[in-house]
Design goal:
By secondary structure, the chain is mainly α. A two-stranded antiparallel sheet has the order 1-2. The chain starts with a helix and ends with a helix.
């Protein structure tokens, strides 16, 4: 079951989840001293992917015990990857303005704290 879920997860992440940085249009312009460089959405996606994987892996670990049900772990990874992609997409719509990033991160962390509190209160 795990192999099937992992294959479905890879297909969804590769072909159905859009590049979240396309909301920026031509990408971001990075200024380094007197030189400026434009990073297209594809390059931004390549840079963000390892961070997305790491953060998603850590978040899944909050709710899943490794080895207990591998298919569930793969499913949770897909769900949280989609959530993280959506949150980054929201940030990109705001042009990664500081207020938007802080607001989304604080609300997201607050949601995890609330879910863990409920989980500890009613399921343990």
């Amino acid at each position: 079951m795990y192999k099937l879920m992992a294959a479905i997860s890879i297909l969804i992440r590769q072909f159905y989840i859009p590049n979240l940085f396309e909301a920026l249009g031509d990408g971001l312009v990075v200024n380094m001293g007197k030189t400026s460089m434009s990073l297209p959405p594809e390059a931004l996606n390549w840079v963000a992917e390892p961070f997305m994987h790491g953060i998603t892996f850590v978040i899944v670990g909050l709710y899943y015990d490794r080895g207990s049900a591998p298919a569930l772990g793969s499913f949770l990874y897909l769900i949280f990857y989609c959530i993280h992609t959506f949150l980054l997409w929201l940030m990109s719509l705001a042009g990664f303005a500081t207020w938007a990033v802080i607001l989304i991160v604080v609300l997201y962390i607050g949601c995890h704290i609330g879910v863990k509190w409920l989980q500890n209160r009613y399921f343990y």
